[in-house]
Amino acid sequence: MTEFQKSILEGIPDELPMAKPYDPNVSHAPKRGIEGVLSDKDRALALKNALRYFPAHQHEVLAPEFAAELEHYGRIYMFRFRPDYEMYARPIDEYPHQSRQAAAIMLMIQNNLDPKVAKHPHELITYGGNGAVFQNWAQYRLVMQYLAQMTDEQTLVLYSGHPLGLFPSHPEAPRVVVTNGMMIPNYSKKEDWNKYNALGVTSYGQMTAGSFMYIGPQGIVHGTTITLLNAGRKMGLGDKNLRGKVFVTSGLGGMSGAQTIAAEVTGAVGIVAEIDPDAVQQRLTDGYIKAENVFTNLGALLPRIEQARQDKEAVALVYQGNVVELWERLAKEEVKVELGSDQTSLHNIEGMGYTPAGYTFEEAKRLLDKDPVQFMSEVRDTLRRHVKAINTMAERGMYFWDYGNAFLKEAGNSGADIWLDETEGHFRYPSYVEDIMGPMCFDYGFGPFRWVCASGTMKDLQKTDEIAAEILREMLAEAPEDIRPQLQDNLNWIEGAEDNLPVVGSKSRILYADAEGRIRIARAFNKAIARGELSAPVVLGRDHHDVSGTDSPYRETANIYDGSQFTADMAVHNVIGDAFRGATWISLHNGGGVGWGEVMNGGFGMVLDGTPESDRRLESMLFWDVNNGIARRSWARNRGAMSTIQRTMQAYPGLRVTLPTIADDNLVEEALGLSAKEGKA
Asked: Do 275 and 361 meet the contact criterion of CB atoms below 8 Å apart?
């Protein structure tokens, strides 16, 4: 047995490991403020909650150490217990296990915490500033030990990262059930998260962080590429590419860094503002951007934009500075911009997710630490300037959308001129799901299907690429016209994926596929495993940001207009249905890309091992996982979803879905005594 395997099986060690020094070479999570959040009684409770993982004889050493972490970082991470072994996704058979499904889950957990993948790996945060895999290292160690010990007759239950334990179940049950942040509704505000997370009783799993399904930047690169292509189609800028068109946005950290590659893949002239020099340096190191395309002077950047436009160059240009300065200069100089968006982390507005104008990144961090009230005042002023400049550009013909990062919400909270109808809650600008991805992808069943080759070999990944491309070609030859562009985009993507960006972490891939595409591709993978063409199991999954996975009124369900965008039945039912249809693990989270208390989202993982059982499970589960959302979107009277579900019912006689009858607007208005202006809904 290797030292790595011994360490996994040991769980929490009997002897206290040496304390770990703070590593300044690793990105660390910001300090979480607990002053005024936790009382002295709460602090004592947080410490007792942390100490319960350890035997009493260790408490004398650990109590002051954990108390210091709580005061200094605002959380108890238990850094001492961070493993000594390297953190990365190993080939499946290197994990000690009695269940191969459990070994695949261990692989996915380690991928989420790989320093090449995770934003703040020592704090167990994968992305978004606060999207945690676990709350602390004791939870990680116990979960890995449980997974190594469990059989296919057991299920591991996780409460916000805490392993409640292994429970007897059966081979058809999920091996792991995950929940994150499941709060009583009246205790689901941002300040509630800060308190109860500090107490160690809840967690912010983001979407794919706490569900062990993050695959690094590839997922968001592909999603951003699809968004840009469809925005171009919507605005008549081109069906196949965006050559000669300018796209302006912000953000190079975390998932927003994908925008540079997406701009180049689509052929656009992409201009991305980023104020954090470390984020710019990281993208230079990653190879996402080139040093000669980074500008600190707007006077030098503007001529470069015009040259790239004229040459129809596919390029990502970076302004290392505040995006508000960029927008104001573009407006002043009357620069033509076809497409605009924003991807600063405004869901984390009080934790440096957005930097006020007039401050460097470091100056803003110091202001936040010294005077958080003044910091937020400066942020609100900056958001008003931000929106004013965007409004000027939009009046000149630019198409702007919100990228699901709470930009519209926080601009509205700041008193910016962002409202179309504040009483009705309608913003001037749509979210990208409301206007682009919802009606053009989700309503037709297309969403972020992904897979991971558990062998860890490029050979297996290349084989899965070939299989997926062949399936897409077959589907394209027989597809109805309304989904042909989506199939073609994804065929182009999968054929060029290896060249578009390097694989980071696990050997994984993503493409947008509907239920038929997911089932056909998965079935082909399973057959390839059975024939030995793939050397190890394949893990299927998806982003929660999908057709059925998430209820989020300002993002995933923003194009639902019957009032049910504020309900969460779809996401909850999706997870329940996946559980009894064959998912290997399932997850349900409060909170996601738009913030705590603003969204409910669910995910799954499914291990294909080449067996007939896998064939049965994948067909049953993947069909439900997509068509649950199509049926709900159809009931909301979304035209694309209505036609899609009717076509699906024709192909599957066992499917019977309640279809809506469309009421006549004039009849409704007349019955209520409303004018046409007042009555439209």
From this structure: yes
DSSP state of 151: -
Cα-flanking dihedrals φ and ψ of residue 336, to 5°?
Answer: -75, 125
Q: Could you tell me which residues come within 8 angstroms of residue 219 by beta carbon, excluding any fewer than 6 positions away?
A: 208, 448, 450, 510, 543
- Long-range contacts for 71-75 (Cβ within 8 Å, ≥24 apart)? 71/34, 72/31, 73/29, 73/31, 73/32, 73/123, 74/31, 74/32, 74/33, 74/34, 74/194, 74/198, 75/29, 75/32, 75/123, 75/135, 75/136, 75/197, 75/198
DSSP states along 227-291 = HHHHHHHHTTS-SS--TT-EEEEE--SGGGGHHHHHHHHHT-EEEEE---HHHHHHHHHHTSS-G
CA–CA separation, 478 and 514 (whole Å): 14
Q: Percent helix, strand and coil across the chain, each rounded to 5?
A: 50, 15, 40
Question: What pLDDT is attached to residue 255?
Answer: 67
Length of the chain: 681
Separation between Cα atoms, residue 44 and residue 464, nearest integer Å: 52
CA–CA dist 669, 681 (Å, integer): 10
pLDDT score recorded for residue 681:
47
Give 149-171 pLDDT, tens digit per residue. Answer: 999 999 999 999 999 999 999 99
pLDDT of residue 616: 97
What is d(CA 140, CA 132) in angstroms, rounded to the nearest whole number? 11
Residue 131 belongs to what H/E stretch? strand 131-132
pTM of the model: 0.90
Could you tell me the end-to-end alpha-carbon distance of the chain, in angstroms, rounded to an integer? 65
Q: What is the pLDDT of residue 626?
A: 97
The pLDDT assigned to 4 comes to 97
CA distance 7 to 544: 32
Number of other residues whose CB lies within 10 A of the CB of residue 533: 16
- Could you tell me the two tokens for 582? 């064959």
Question: What is each CA distance from 142 to 38, 60, 90, 124, 485, in whole angstroms?
Answer: 27, 22, 19, 14, 47
Grouping H, G, I as helix, E, B as strand and the rest as coil, residue 322 is coil
**Burial letters for 610-641: b for 16+ Cβ neighbours within 10 Å, e otherwise?**
beeebbebbbbbbbbbbbbbbbbbbbbbbebb
Residue-level pLDDT at 367: 95
Q: Which residues neighbour 295 within 8 Å (Cβ) at sequence distance 6 or greater?
A: 301, 304, 317, 318, 319, 320
Contact by Cβ (8 Å): 191, 37: yes
User: Which residues in the chain show pLDDT less than 70?
Assistant: 254-255, 404, 676-681
DSSP letters spanning 611-638: SHHHHHHHHHHHHHHHHHHHHHHHHTT-
Query: What would the DSSP string read from start to end of 558-614?
Result: TT--SSGGG--HHHHHHHHHHHHHT-SEEEEEE--TT-TTS-EEEEEEEEE-SSHHH
Calpha distance 479→470 (Å, rounded): 14
Report which of 153, 133, 130 is spatially closest to residue 143, judged by C-alpha positions: 133
